[in-house]
Amino acid sequence: MNGNIYHNRKAQWAIYLAAFAALALLPIFFDSPFTLNLLARYCVFALLAVSVSLVWGYAGILSLGQAIAFGLAAYGMAMTMQMQYQDPVSDPIPSFMLTNELETLPLVWAPFWSTPIGLILTFGVPTVFFIVFGILMFQARVAGVFVAIMTLAMTAAWYSMAYDMQPFTAGFNGISPPLPFQIFGTEVDPYSAGAYWVCVAFLAVLTLGAKFLMQTKFGLIVQAIRDDAERARFLGYNVAYYQVVVFALSGFLAASAGFCWVLIVQYVSPTSLEIVFSISIVIWAAVGGRTSLLGAIIGAFLVNGMQSFVGDELQQVWMLILGAIFIGVVLFLPRGLAGFFELVLGLFSGRREPQKSDWNTGRTSAVTKESAE
Amino acid sequence: MKVSRRTLLKGAISGATVAAVGAPHFFIPNPAFAAPWIEKGGKIKVGVLFSQTGNLAVVENDSTQVVLYAIDEINANGGVAGMQVEPVVVDAKSDIKVYSEKISQLILRDRVISTFGGYTSASRRAVAPIVMARDHLFYYPTCYEGRECTQNIINTGPLANQHSQDLIPFMVENFGPKVYLIGSNYIWPKESNKNAKVWLERVGGEVVGEDYVPLGGSEFTPIFNKVRQQQPSFIFSTVVGDSDIALHKQYLQEGFKVDKMPIASLTTGEIETRAMGAEAGAGHFLSAPYFQTMENPTNQRFVEGYLASKYGGGGVTHYNMEETYLSVYVWKHGVEKALATAGDIEEVTPRMIRDVSGNIEVGDDISPEGRVWIDPDNFNIWLKPKIGQCQSDGQFKVIKAADEHVGPDPMSIYPERGVCKADGLHQPDGTVKTSVL
Amino acid sequence: MSVNDFWTPFALLPFLNALIIGISLISIWLIAALGLTIIYGTMGVINMAHGEFIMLGAYSTYVLQTLIGIPFLLCLPLSFLILAAIGWVIERGVIRTLYRRPLDTLLATWGLSLILVQGVRLIFGGEPQYVGVPSWLNFQIQADFIHLSGLRLFIIVMAIVMVAVTWFLLYRTTLGICVRAVMQDKEMAASFGIDANRIYSLTFCYGAGLAGVAGSMFGALKTLFPDMGGGYIVEAFLVVVVGGVQLAGSVLSASLLGELNSIFSYFTNDTFARFVLFTLVVVFLRIRPQGLLAEKMTRR
To answer: What is the ipTM for the molecules in this complex?
Structure first.
């Protein structure tokens, strides 16, 4: 171990735990339901950023498809909540289905009568999709730019699907379950401290879990693959296996975010599957620092917080500022704010340690099948 | 680091346990604020929730401006119940996620008494859950598909059944029975088309084709190709936004003749005709409750007053704006009526305003489109639909106005689902469902 | 919803017609993707702002035509020059520092697209504008079941011209040889005295210029609004990637995708057609990541 406290694992864990403890204690200071709900939304965005950080920062897979898992889970949750509101006898089908002349509940909706099955599908469907999609891509040794474009195309495809399958999804209008989520006989009011804690809990547990995983042997192999997939393959590791697992995990994280989102917003529409949204997630992670999970969280809070508060003041020029921030971060802070902290802490510890892995410049990320062969 | 990881973890776990045990308490909504929504001696706060930036701003910015104009007008004439009205203007940035964030800000933090907002159905549905959960009041001032029955939304635009009733018979009579339906691919056009079909059947028309383009889509060649084969008497269009402009431009390029096969639209208003160039718009028809060219003293005052005010930079008034303008007056009368019932302004709640809003009327002296009133059962608006034909200057000439007011009926083509009453949807089996979305 | 509402039953003549409409779609996809092919193919730069370049092309035509009064046909080369100039500035300012980090260019150009969209919205307002179509294009070709408007025909011809010019530049000029050399191996090319940076600059300018011409024509065909570029970017990328990032491949993949889109739209609807098409592309890339026409080359 060398001098920079940034790389001290104990210090890292302390900071992570302190950050989540602070988040969890916030409701004591802010009793405003609006602020709590807003912070819960940021937690959801932060969870999405963590999922990108995991798959991109640690595994070197630039996925522009995180919105798929988010959106699928959000639809699953919205369907579960909508069916909690429907009555099997007097009112068996949601009202929007009338426009499309549905007389019976479609088969895909039927399982959602049961809340437990609905929840299993909410988390299960996106994760399974990411496993299948991951196997499809990584078995063929697709890498770098091609992963980005394939996930992009897949996001566009799902968006069209959610948008076009109006009898099942209400299309562009989206689904807004009229009542909050009911579980264990309680109603989870989206503006309560309880709903906020659910979001914080998901964020904390999943982030810490991911951090722990990345420090195990598994995580180290994943990072080795990121730095040089070919070398890892020569050493006998099944590269595709590791990539699929990390990809699916990130899908599960994004799905959890989708679940929390509908819990606190009670609404889902195809915009949750939009390309713009999907790329925004990557940007949050990039601003905070892709190679740091906590950095990604900070990035998500920062960008969205600025959007909520600064964005209102500066209205018309806000998008210009946002665009400039992205370009600035990419050009001058490729490792985001976390990289900046690392640098500063390195200066304080008195020893400059040049982090000279190729990953800093992102060079290896461009490895494609052709050059790998 | 003095604190070991284990201690920290222990702390975190015990904290989580406490939270979990105590959880049921925290999931319950905060008790209602005791504080009144309107404080004596203060101002009456209302929310204005439209997009001022982003792609929806083209339409919604006008909505913001006209709400502010109406509030200025009300304030200059003594306010509501002797109190001044203070608009809380927020920008939804054309992002559905922001609509839902901002509505909670308006209700929970700014504590406005009511909110005016929304243009797309998606935005209405995004704000609906919290509006209903907090028993608040949302004025949705534009045309929509209906088929909803809630306790907390008042609408001042025409429903699908009000559009078709006059337009379809008029077009069939003047151009012939064969109609081709083209719409944007979402719920409102589909619902409007279903209504149109009901009226077509009554007057002996027939549908020769039905097609939908994606929102924002601008490729109409495949559809026009089918149109050419089917030779309809007219096109019934529910294409919205940018696509609508592309539709008219490509109609022209394809060499169709407006006197042989015009487009009867529910959407192509003054903003659109200006953006597509007058030559692409001229000759086509629009069904709307209001046109800028309507000749009556109230409208003259409204158009001149608005365009001369600091809000009138857009240069036109159109049906969506006028419906928004009306909603502010519907609200004003609602507050006054609620005050008369409650006796004390501090007792007035959003729900109270809604409950007394049935039959509230905006008279000829205020409403540029003429007298309108709110339906006491479903809280949509009674109005006289009009048919306008676009002229070469992009303005519309009113060529037919309904003689009688036409009532809104959100469930008009779904009688089997029940009837929308003030207390909810009365289902055929006798049960009442309060918030049907 | 019954099955028949969704699936249009097969009929020969309308189906043939759908194929012919497909040609029109091909020309649009191809024009949109051409600039991207050149930029991505030569430099390995993922330019997410390509759609915004098209948008800028449309707006520059709007300015030249409506505000200055230059005839439409002359607007095309002028848009090319304007966008080439903008491309030069952007290449110098942003892209140049990112050649070794292709994934980062994706993010930087995304930020750039935000700036361009909002900049245009601030200058021209958000409301849709239009580019007038010259009267000599107001004709239709009608022969049996074939029907084509003058503007569509013009766009098809322009697509052919643009591909031909690009082909000529790449394969029949010294400059083109240099470009292809850099494309194959930058270091080796440099050791032969080719100034790779200059080639990159020129390529980026040329690609941006092509997007400008595309914008001019799309402006005439459709509507101008600040967000219009977003509608082209995914399709353009798919054309490029499926084609194998080279000129002939892009022509082939645009043809394939355009026809498939037209056929799927005929059987179902435009939105569902997109879903099927995108899924097919993903599956195709899984089987053949190198694209339709594979060409062994080093990616940077």
So the answer is: 0.87
The secondary structure of chain B, three-state, reads CCCCHHHHHHHHHHHHHHHHHCHHHHHCCCCCCCCCCCCCCCCEEEEEEECCCCCCHHHHHHHHHHHHHHHHHHHHCCCECCECEEEEEEECCCCHHHHHHHHHHHHHHCCCCEEEECCCHHHHHHHHHHHHHCCCCEEECCCECCCCECCCEEECCCEHHHHHHHHHHHHHHHHCCEEEEEEECCHHHHHHHHHHHHHHHHHCCEEEEEEEECCCCCCCHHHHHHHHHHCCCEEEEECCHHHHHHHHHHHHHCCCCCCCCCEEECCCCHHHHHHHCHHHHCCCEEEECCCCCCCCHHHHHHHHHHHHCCCHHHCCCCHHHHHHHHHHHHHHHHHHHHHHHHCCHHHCCHHHHHHHCCCCEECCCCCCCCCEEECCCCCCEEECCEEEEECCCCCEEEEEECCCCECCCCCCCCHHHCEEECCEEECCCCCEECCEC
Give me the CATH topology for the region B160-288.
Rossmann fold (3.40.50)
Pick the CATH number of B44-158+296-374 from 1.10.10.60, 3.40.50.10490, 3.40.50.2300, 3.40.50.150: 3.40.50.2300
Does residue B327 carry a pLDDT above 50?
yes
Which range has the worst mean pLDDT, A192-201, A308-317, A335-344, B412-421? Answer: A308-317
Domain encompassing residue C207: 11-287
Chain C residues whose CB is inside 8 A of the B277 CB are 130, 132
pTM of the model: 0.90
Chain C residues close to A158, C-beta within 8 Å: 275
Domain boundaries, chain A: 5-372
* A92 pLDDT tier (thresholds 50, 70, 90): confident
Which chains, if any, share at least 3 CB pairs under 8 A with chain C?
Answer: A, B
How far, in whole angstroms, is CA B408 from its chain's centroid? Answer: 13
Q: Which chains touch B (3 or more CB pairs under 8 A)?
A: A, C
Q: How many CB atoms lie within 10 A of CB A267?
A: 26
- Rounded Cα distance, C12 and C18, in Å: 10
- For residue C230, what is the nearest residue in chain A, using CA coordinates? A276
Chain A partners within 8 Å of C234 (Cβ): 152-153, 156, 275
Closest chain C C-alpha to B249 CA, distance in angstroms: 7
Considering only CA atoms, which of B215, B224, C195 is closest in space to residue A160?
Answer: B215
Hey, is the C-beta of B231 within 8 angstroms of any chain C C-beta? no
Closest CA of chain C from B430, distance in Å: 28
